[in-house]
Design goal:
Chain lengths: 112, 114
């Protein structure tokens, strides 16, 4: 079946540190992959996406590369800010289009 | 602004009661999804509608039901409420025809059952 596995949190980093949040997936075929961010008290917002192997999604300094060989879509940012404190969700959309599969979310806290 | 509107933002009610949550999808999106988010269980998929028809069911309790109307707005009905139903309920919409298209989420309805 289809599933997404995210690294467990919570993650606490100092400002300007490097961030990696691991995400691996299981799926038949070639799904589309997404990262969402949820700030406190808000809904999930699309952060970035990649729709085929070796695609790199990027937004607001965050990047993730669709790695088919390792079935991974790790989220990275070179220098985090306090304002990046949020919960991050990895997700896939299967080729058939109807279903989305979400990871359990990783809470990030950035301290000054 | 995602373009997905959910009302009400907050709802406080008693056990045994029934509530209705409402969602208006983004303009042009035919597919609506409902999710439940609680502290200990993450994001749980409940149900999906496409152009008025039910397309997929997830972990939706029999006490819960949903529908999508001809104008594409959707309602989630929760009945015989229990304390454990307290959660954030999100609606999301998407262009159903393309697997490249992401979900767009509303800001949720926070339900508190007392």
């Amino acid at each position: 079946g289809n599933s997404v596995t995210q690294m467990e949190g919570p993650v606490t980093l100092s400002e300007e540190a490097f961030l990696t949040i691991n995400c691996t997936y299981t799926a038949t075929g070639y799904p589309s992959l997404f990262w969402y961010v949820q700030y406190p008290g808000e809904g999930l917002q699309l952060l970035l996406k990649a729709t085929k192997a070796d695609d790199k999604g990027s937004n607001k300094g965050f990047e993730a590369t669709y790695r088919k060989e390792t079935t991974s879509f790790h989220l990275e940012k070179g220098s985090v800010q306090v304002s990046d404190s949020a919960v991050y969700f990895c997700a896939l959309r299967h080729l058939t289009g109807n279903q989305f599969y979400f990871g359990t979310g990783t809470s990030l806290t950035v301290i000054p | 602004d995602s373009g997905v509107t959910q009302t009400p933002k907050h709802l406080i009610t008693a056990t045994g009661q029934r509530v209705t949550l409402r969602c208006s999808p983004r303009s042009g999106d035919l597919s609506v999804y409902w999710y439940q988010q609680s502290l200990d269980q993450g994001l749980q998929f409940l149900i999906q509608y496409y152009n008025g028809e039910e397309r997929a069911k997830g972990n939706i309790l029999e006490r819960f039901s949903a529908q999508q109307f001809p104008d594409l707005h959707s309602e989630l009905n929760l009945s015989s409420l229990e304390l454990g139903d307290s959660a954030l309920y999100f609606c999301a919409s998407s262009v159903a025809s393309s697997y490249n298209s992401p979900l767009h989420f509303g800001n949720g309805t926070r339900l508190t059952v007392t």
